[in-house]
Every structure is written in C-alpha cells, then in structure tokens.
Batch of 2 targets.
Target 1
Amino acid sequence: MTEPAKHQLPLRSLVTIHPGYPFRGKLPVDKDGDAFVVQFRHLVVGEPLDDRDGAKLDRVTLPGRRRPDYLWPGDILFMARGTRNDAAVIRALPANTVCTPNFFHLRLKPEAFKLMPEFLAWQLNQIGAQRYFAMCSQGSAAPNVTKTQLGDLPVVVPPIEQQKLMMKLAEAARREQVLLEQLIENRQRMTDAVAQKLLCPDTTTGK
C-alpha cells in the first residue's frame, strides 16, 4: 500500500503574512487602554496562546486611526526578530488584541482549508524550519527574518488525518514533559528537605 503524497508549498501560498501593529518607541502601556497586546514574553514554545480574558496580556491605547489587524483564533504568531524564531497558534484571546511589530501575524488563506493551523505552527518550530530561519539571519548584526524569507519557507502539507495524529503525539509528548518536570521538581524538594535536616543541626538540642 503506497503512502499518500505529501504536498510541499511555499508558506506565502498558504497564509497571509502581516507585521504586527506599528507601535513607535516605547509600548504605550495603559491599564485602561482600548486594546490588548501580545509580546514575546507571553509565548511559551510548543504551547498555544490561550488567554480568553487577557489576564496575562498588556493593555494599551492604540495610537492612530488605522483599523488594527486584530488577532483571531487559528491565527499564528511568528517571532521574526531576535534569536528566537518560534511560532504559536492562537486558541483564544480578547477580540481587541494585536501583537507588536516584532511578530509576523499569519492567517490561513481560504484555499488552505486542508492545513491545520496547529500543525503549521508546530512545523515552524521543527528543526528543519529553525535551521532555515537561522540561515536567514546569518551575518546580520540584529537577527531578523524578513517577510520574503518567511514566505519562501517550504511547508509540507500531509493528509489531514496525519496532521491530526501528529498533533495528538505532540500534545502527549508535551504533557509527559510537564509531568516529568514536576516529578523532578518534587524530588529535588524532598532531597533539599532531607539535606537540610541532615546538614543543619537542631540548635535547641545540639543534635
């Protein structure tokens, strides 16, 4: 039985690519602002961005009159500047949320209905894509992936069932990693507690 063919296409044929909101200078943080904004520190590699109420985001007052390109569920944020070139899919955010210009804002085109946004974000974080982004930034004083370079990235589009299976495997691996990290942390606390009792004598008894 032959394996279904995998299609490989340039990213630009699958998504629209826009820079983040054009803030100038220091981010105008305002606790009573009219919008939320996503920054690098809000993203965790391998995890979707899920903050329906914006509790972890920053509030800002958007300057200018241009209608912002607000972020939608299923959109993807890509870190274009700096040494991290990670991507994250948006699961839930307030409706009036933008991202800084350090990101590229990706949205699947209607004709890319056979591509899962979660799978695309996962693929952008894999070693092949990351090597490509590293090459794009070589020789630059300030590492940066341009819109053209990002759009040229070859993307594999396997059958949708394979995409779903890969996402189940990736989620299982992520959960295992979280549990393992918790186990290591708990074991270290136990070790520290025993060490404290063993190495620090009780001053009340002299033992």
Target 2
Amino acid sequence: MKAYLKTGGVACLAACLLATTPALAKTFVYVSDAEDGVIDGYSMNMANGVLTPLGKTKAGTLVMPMTVSPNKRFLYAVVRSQPLRVVTYAIDPASGALTEKATAPLPDSMAYVSTDATGRFLFTASYGGDKIAVSPIEANGLATSEASQVIPTGKNAHSIRADRSNHFVYATNLGSSQILEYTFDAGSGTLTPNDPPMIKVKPDNGPRHIAISPDNRYLYTIGELSGNITQFAIDPKKGVLTELDYVGTIPADSGLMPGAAREAMAATATSGANTAIAGDDGRPKVWAADIQMTPNGKFVYATERTKSHIALLSVASKTGKLTYVTNFPTEAQPRGIRIDPEGKYLVAAGQKSDHIASYKIDPKTGKLSLIGRFPVGHDANWVEIVTLP
C-alpha cells in the first residue's frame, strides 16, 4: 500500500507539473525562393542556432518580400509575377507549417511589405511603379481586399515602415534620394503627408531599407549605391526626421566604385538579381541591400551584394551613433538577413547561393560566428524569423 501511494504520488506530481509548466517556445525561419516560387521553412534550435528544414510551401514565381503579423499568427508574402498579389499564410504554432488562407491583389510589383502595429493594415512599396500602398487586413488576420490607398512617390520607392509609436510612416525613394514622411491614422489606415513631407538624403546614396531603434529615437537607412548608413533623429511628437550622422560600411580596400540605380524589374521577368545598371563601365559597384538591428539596440548589420559581405557596426547607447567594426563573408549576393527575437542568431540568404547561413551573435562584440549552412531553393532573397509559444 505504501509503495502504491508513493508511486501514485509521483505520478500525480508529474501530472501536476505537466499541467502547470508552459510549453517551450518554438522558433521558425522562413525564406522566400523567388525563382522556385516557394517558401522554405525551418525550425531553429535556440540552444545552438541549428536549422532543421520543415519543407517547402507553394507561393508563386517571384515570391519575394514577406512580413509576420504582430500577433505572430500569419505570414504575408508578396508575389511579384502576374497576378500581382499578397498571400496570407497561417503559421501552425506547433509545427511551423504554413497554410494558405487568402490572397489579395496589389496595385503593382511591390518590393517591400510591412504591417502597422495593430496588424490591421499592410504597407507595400513599388520600386518600378514609384508608389506606395495601404491595404486593409481583416479582423481575422486575412488580407483579401485591394489597396485602400495608393500614393505616387518619387523614383524607386524601396521600403515602407511605421515607427514604433504607430503614428508615423516612412518610405524610402532610392532613385530620388529621399525619405517620405507621413502621419498615420491607425483607425482609418490613412497616410497623410507630414510637414515637411520628405527629407533629402545625400546625393548618390540611394536609400533602400530602414531600421528603427528599439527606443524609437532613431531611424537608420542603408544606401544601396554607397553602402553608407544615414542616422536620423525621430521627433517624438511630430515624427519628422533630422539627419545626425553618415557612416560607411564598405572597406577602403574593397575595390568597389559608387553604385548606380538599377532598372526596375518587369513583373514577369527574373527576380532582378542581375538587373542592368545604366551606363555601366564594367567596374564592380557597391550594391548594398539589407539593414537589421539587434533587439537590444547594441549592433547594426548591413549587407553588400557585389562582394557578398555583412558589415557589423556598434551603436553608442546614449547617442545612437554607429561605429564601423568589420565585415564578414557570407552567402553569394546576400539580399536578406534577419535576427531572431532574442538577438542570439542572424540568418542570411544569398540570391546566388543554394544555402542559407546561420550565425551566432557575440553578445559583447556583435561579431558573427558561423554555425552552419543549410540547403535552400533558388534565388533565396527574404528571411523572416518568428518565435511562438
């Protein structure tokens, strides 16, 4: 009887522990493969950064930019071939599997996608169409309707992001060397030009992608044509930008010449991995792509596609100013990088590589250590990482 009671007590204790212990969070990585028209999925082991393939999900030729909903339940993927559209996928929290739930038309071939903080609106930017758009997202998280607002911009709109207050939105124009500034009504989803409506970036810089500091004090943009990062202060009340600093990411001995804006890709053409440069003299050019900041705001990383490198910059805690540290070789023609929500690992995708790379981030120095390379489809270009309970 005593033995029975002892065993029963242990079983009861185990059952109670199982009932009260929360399930371990799971982290999933998604990479869009433009040429194959699929999204590769991986699970990430948060103890060592190793990726395990989950399989491929059909999307459509030229699937490129992606973003995850604020509640982490959905992945939105833009397809830049006809019919131009955004696809909503439900993310299975247990397996990471993607299930297509809806599609919505887009007004052009959109090179960038993000959501507002409420998850009710989708922002997109068209490089070739010189426009940005706002599309509604239903209460159930699905994007099914056409854009509610389409706004002409300067030349080559390349990215669009809301600030962390969700009151202001910024859109880069690579060809016009400017950043457009908007106020945002999260109730109606309407963008209104701010005062002033734009800020000019240094000529021949080509502002491309945006990173915003965790404290919402600073905005950083990577110049595709220069490889330089411009730092702006964000006015917390008005949302207007003020340029503070301009820092290089390209080593002096790289042999790279200043870049030039590339022709816009056709909606049914290749992904733009080798799009032409007007007046190209054959010399290697700077071709910067992505910029990401660690969740703690201590480090910034930026990619350059001609030399296939990732630059590391440290961030001053009080001023947000950047200091160039070094460059790391990575996958061929790195278009997209992402950092996991804990800031422990960075994943890089190269358009001319059949592998993606996972790196460990040194918490003190920001330096990257290669964990491993993992198979991926053709023309891998965009990475998203999500952690789910």
